[in-house]
Structure formats: C-alpha cells, structure tokens
Amino acid sequence: MRVVIAGGHGQIALRLEKLLAARGDQAVGIIRKPEQTGDLEALGAEAAVLDLEKSDVDTVAGVLSGADAAIFAAGAGEGSGTDRKDTVDRAAAALFAEAAERAGVRRHIQVGSMGADRWETLDVSDDFRLYLKAKKAAEDDLRARDLEWTILRPGALTNEPGTGLVYVAESTGRGSIPRDDVAAFLVALLDNPGTARSTIELISGDTPIADSL
User: Fold this and answer.
1) Residue 125: C-alpha distances to residues 115, 120, 122, 128 (Å)
2) Catalytic one among 72, 96, 119, 131?
C-alpha cells in the first residue's frame, strides 16, 4: 500500500510512517523543510518536499498520483498565529482533499480534533477556538467530497508509551490518548475500509485496537 501523509514530520505522522514501513507499506510524508528528509528516510519512509500553504492543487495531485490512501495529519501547532490556523488547518486540508479527488485517491483519512463540532460553545481560549473552527470547516469540506473519507478526532495527545487499548465511539467524552496509539489506530483505519464516511472519536480505553472497529 502506498500512503501519502500530509504533515509528514509531525509527531503522529513520524510514528505512523515507522509502522507502515515496518510492515512493508510505502509511506510518503509531505514535509516543508528539506532538512527533515533524513528523519523520514531513517524510518523507511519517503519524503516529498512541498509547502501545502503555497502549493496548487495540480502539484499536490502529482504527489498523490498512484497512492492507495491519503492521510491529512498536518496542523499549524501552538503559537502559530491566527492566520495559519486558517491556512493550514482549513485551507491546506481542503487543498489536500481536492488534490486526492483529482488524483483518483479515494481513501482519505483526516485527523481532526475533539470539540470541533462544538467550537462555538466550548470554554476555551480564543486561539484554540479559532483552531477548532478551522478543523470544523475542514471536516465540512471533506464530507461534501466524493471520497471514502474518515474523520478521526483523538482526545488530548500525550507522549506516554502506547498501550494498544482504546475506546472508540461517535462521542467518547473527554479523555487522552498516547500518540503511539493514534498512529496504530490510523493503520487500523487503512485496513478497515468499512469505516468510510464515519466520524470517530478516540481515547484510551480497554479494547485492543484490532477489535475496536
């Protein structure tokens, strides 16, 4: 399986690329900085140097050409400023999805954020509210496309070692989850096409990932 991952040097993406390469899949991470190439290659992944904030749809579609699946795992991150909440978390996600349509890559997984559907009412900072608003707009854009999409909303992310045990539901309630387990769950989504056109929340729980879907 050839899988193209936007946000290829992110903490979840690096874990995902390592898992995919270990089982013989071809992971391609889209990165902005050429100096990050070696980090991906050390995991057995390929790097595609491309800035989604500045690219056009044809260029991105060229990277996606021949892929079996696309995963959007990019994010502007904390302290990125108001503008990049929109240019990365909304616009880049929409560009990536449009490019997938153009390239004929129908399986599309988007990593969102828990609370995106309640961005107007949550008691959060203004900065985080803008982030959630952008994530919700990206979700709405993806749902309107002719793709086999799945939206994954993980809980609060930690760097604790993964347990392989999760709780999956349309609405899980608040909780946290190691990035290790989010990456492993993304692999499980790739292997379960029946999850297409679903929005899934994910936190740590008691069910093995292999059984959770």
Assistant:
1) 13, 11, 9, 5
2) 131
Q: What is the CA radius of gyration of the chain?
A: 16
DSSP label at 78? T
8 A C-beta contact, residue 128 and residue 120: no
Quote the CA–CA distance of 150 and 154 in Å, as a whole number. 13
Coil, strand or helix: which one is 81? Answer: coil
The answer to whether residue 167 is catalytic is no
31 alpha-carbon distance from chain centroid: 14
| pLDDT-based confidence at residue 84 (cuts at 50, 70, 90) | confident
- Tell me the pLDDT tens digit for each residue of 159-211: 999 999 999 999 999 999 999 999 999 999 999 999 999 999 999 999 999 99
* Structure tokens belonging to residue 84: 């990049």
